[in-house]
Amino acid sequence: MAIDGKITRTDDDAFTGWIASLTFDVDIVLTKNPHKKKETHPDFEITTRTPRNRLIRIGSAWEQTSQAGNDYLSLAFDVNGTKVRVNALQGEGSDDGEYRLVPLAG
C-alpha cells in the first residue's frame, strides 16, 4: 500500500501531522496516553476528526529505539477499515522534531 505522511513534535510533547494513501487522507494528532499503566501499553493515542468534526481515536503509538540507538515511533491505526502500521523516523537533514512516516513491509 502506498502511504505517505509526516508528524511534528509540538511544545507540549504531542505530535501533529497527516497520513495519506490513495483511499484516505487524514490529519492526525498523537497525545500522551493518560491510561498507560504498564511498559507495554501505548505511549500515545492517535486521534483524528470525523467528517462532522468529532474527535475519534483511531490507533496507538509506542516510543522505540533502534539497534543503532536512533529514536522513532511505531504507529498502528485503522482508517476506513484499513489497518495501517508505520514507523515515524527522523531523517538526516530534517528539522528537529519532524518525522516521516514509513510503511512497514507485509
Summarize the model shown.
With 106 residues, this protein is mostly beta strands.
Describe the structure in your own words:
This protein is an all-beta fold and about 110 residues long. It has one domain. The protein has no helices and 8 strands. An 8-stranded antiparallel β-barrel has the order 1-2-3-4-5-6-7-8. The protein is globular and about 40 Å long.
Features:
single chain, 106 residues, mainly beta, globular
Shape: globular
The major pleated sheet works out as:
8 strands, antiparallel, barrel
- Rg for CA atoms: 13 Å
Strand proportion: over 45%
Cα end-to-end separation? 9 Å
Instruction: Write out the strand line-up for the largest beta sheet, numbering strands in chain order.
Output: 1-2-3-4-5-6-7-8
